[in-house]
Amino acid sequence: MNMSTDERAIRDLYAKWRQAMLEEDLGGVLELVTDDAVFLVPGQPPVRGKQQLAQLFEAARGQFRIEFKSEFDEISLHDDWAYVCSRLAVAMTPKSGGAPVHRAGHTLTILCKRPDGRWAVARDANLLAPDVS
């Protein structure tokens, strides 16, 4: 497969996101999102901006061991923006003990290209639901 530079950069962004989440690296996560990013998750109010994202991240830091896998269904490039449809499965195991919580579903992410050429997450909507498989 002949992959464009932008598609490779977006795939690299996802790899960096994954690594930052696994390492509980808030700075690494915030580096990958726009200042006005919006995250939508079922049953919760939207998370708007880096400050709200940081607050949620800090509240959960150290409480769970997270494992996840993601598969791209589609990456569509449009000049200085792109969207990614993917499938995501997440297992969150409390570090204090207890059974892991499994969630899985589809996501839609909108990215924008910054003036320096780097891609960043601008909007993210996930349809993760309890995974009982």
Structure description:
- The chain is α+β, with helices and mostly antiparallel strands.
- It has helices at residues 5-22, 26-30, 49-60, and strands at 33-40, 47-48, 64-78, 81-94, 101-113, 119-126, 129-130.
- A hairpin with a 6-residue loop joins strand 4 and strand 5 (101-113).
- The longest helix has 18 residues, at 5-22.
Write a compact overview of the structure shown.
The protein has 133 residues and is an alpha+beta fold.
Topology:
Layout (H helix, E strand, L loop, with lengths): L4 H18 L3 H5 L2 E8 L6 E2 H12 L3 E15 L2 E14 L6 E13 L5 E8 L2 E2 L3
Percent of residues in beta strands? over 45%
Shape: globular
Low-confidence stretches: none
* Count of strand segments: 7
Helix proportion of residues, in percent? 25-40%
Distance between the termini: 32 Å
Largest β-sheet summary: 7 strands, mixed
Under CATH at level 1, the class stands as Alpha Beta
The overall pLDDT average reads 94
- Computed Rg: 15 Å
Structural class: alpha+beta
Q: Any idea what the CATH architecture is?
A: Roll
Helical run tally: 3
Domain count, please report it. Answer: 1
Order of helices and strands: HHEEHEEEEE
The CATH topology name reads: Nuclear Transport Factor 2, Chain: A
Labels describing this entry:
3 helices; 26% helix; 7-stranded mixed sheet; globular; 133 residues; single chain; alpha+beta; Nuclear Transport Factor 2, Chain: A
